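Researcher: Structure for this, please.
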Amino acid sequence: MKKLFIFLFSVILTMNCVNIAAQNPFCTLKGNPFVGNNPTTKEVQYERQKSYHSAYFDGEKCSFRLRLQDPVGNGWSSKVGIQITVDGVDYGIATLPFVGGNYAEIIKILPSGEIQFTWLGEFNYVRNCFEIYNPSDSLIFKSDLYLPPDEVFLTYQNECVECVPITDFKGVYILEQHQVNLTWKSPENDDIIGFDIYRNDELIEHIPPATIFYSDNTAELEDGDYKYCVIPVYPSICNMEDECFETYISNVGITNYKDHIMIYPNPATNFINISGDMVSEIKMYNNIGQLILTQHNTNTINVSGLTNGIYLLAIETSTGYNTQTKLIINH
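Model: Predicted structure, token format:
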């Protein structure tokens, strides 16, 4: 009878483990915002990059990410965890508090050197699931085997990469050509592996490290405010100030507003007049997308102090009509 009980318990435990493995090779990650180890969509790529872009590189230190999971309970017992040392120096214990829930991600900022990960306490495959990722966010260990207590289960040689930001960053929006052009000076660093280009927090392009220019065609974009950022990419995830350019983009031509309002004279010298509905707000942008003037509740604008050139007017009327148009100033 005792042997039968042991056999049945082993079968149940095995089925439980197989069921967990069937859902995920590591374990079931409830509440985990990431899907898999190698996301393919731009949205997931950006979410991962954004989540680890800040506070994970500091001088000669870089980050390790630990995903901790208890798929059948509310956390690990107080006697288990992952002890971390670098060249023999203690860097604390990563654990999943029982009261804190069944999933957590912990970032450990560690210096260059020999890192040793030691499992503390009794290991239970069904409950003590975890993964460890290096500074380039690559999986280096997952708990798919039994770990003896108080023994080093992973030794990793950590060599942090020096992250150097770009310099001389410039952005310009060319209204007539429907283009945003970005230029910069590349860091003098052999470790750099390219640049990520973001538009309104969406990764739109990854370009090689020798590139120092990027042009985006804005003809198909909706009118509105846009933010372009260039982020250098290194093997380690770095903490650097983003270099960004913000502008207002419009694809509305000068003839699109005539059924509602009229702007005259155009070209203008000293004043412009807006006939039709009362203007509740008008914003004027120069040809590189910088906001240079805002006025409210007026149909006459003094432009005598502005330099010659092409400008963009974004107009909102008292009846709620919104439009944009080009204005030429020629004194």
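Researcher: Any notable elements?
Model: Confidence is low (pLDDT under 50) at residues 2-25, 29-58, 253-259. The chain has three domains: 29-158, 167-249, 261-329.
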